[in-house]
Design brief:
184 residues, alpha/beta, five-stranded parallel sheet, 5 helices, 31% helix, globular
């Protein structure tokens, strides 16, 4: 099992490669189907339940431009799997080539501590955290559009914009009082 490195391979012409990592594969396939419908550039989608990726096809694997960790807030396993997978990414990915996509944030049964833990993780890694509605077609389309914007920049397909610059604009921040108990 090897570490995934962002600059170990050459990029493809007018091509963007995205890796969707989700332990439960609920939202992953519908998001992948919507991403490959993009016509302006060629989008290759790779799916994984967790990292590290298997060694068998490492030579034929394209350069991964963006790694998206899809975290279902109703599942502790989903968050734990994403957290465990982070150690298999080269530090170069945290310069604008990783983001977290959170689903089921509107669910009333979600403990607020889980969302706070994800926010702290994203803020500590200086990564964007996106929220997505995975139950409706409009939610999938909206999530796809946001991911495509980030993916095009991360793949170098947007002139005068870099993944690091976009990451600074969209990164998750944690308010200083998040560790303070609420008085609600």
């Amino acid at each position: 099992m090897s570490m995934l490195k962002p600059f170990s391979k050459l990029p493809g012409l007018n091509t963007a490669n995205i890796l969707l990592v989700e332990s439960e594969e609920q939202f992953q396939q519908s998001l992948a189907d919507a991403l490959v419908e993009e016509t302006a550039v060629t989008v290759n989608v790779r799916l994984a339940k967790s990292l590290p990726l298997p060694m068998e096809n490492e030579e034929s694997r394209p350069r991964i431009d963006l790694v998206v960790f899809i975290i279902n807030l109703t599942s502790e396993l989903s968050f734990q799997s994403a957290e465990d997978s982070l150690k298999y990414l080269d530090p170069g990915y945290f310069l604008g080539k990783v983001c977290f996509m959170v689903t089921n944030a509107r669910n009333a049964s979600v403990p607020p501590e889980r969302l706070d833990a994800i926010r702290k993780l994203a803020a500590s890694l200086h990564c964007p955290m996106l929220f997505a509605e995975d139950q409706t077609p409009d939610g999938v389309i909206s999530a796809t559009e946001r991911l495509l914007t980030i993916l095009k920049v991360a793949a170098g397909l947007v002139p005068m914009a870099t993944a690091l610059y976009l990451s600074n604009l969209t990164r998750c921040t944690v308010p200083p009082d998040i560790d303070q108990p609420s008085f609600d």
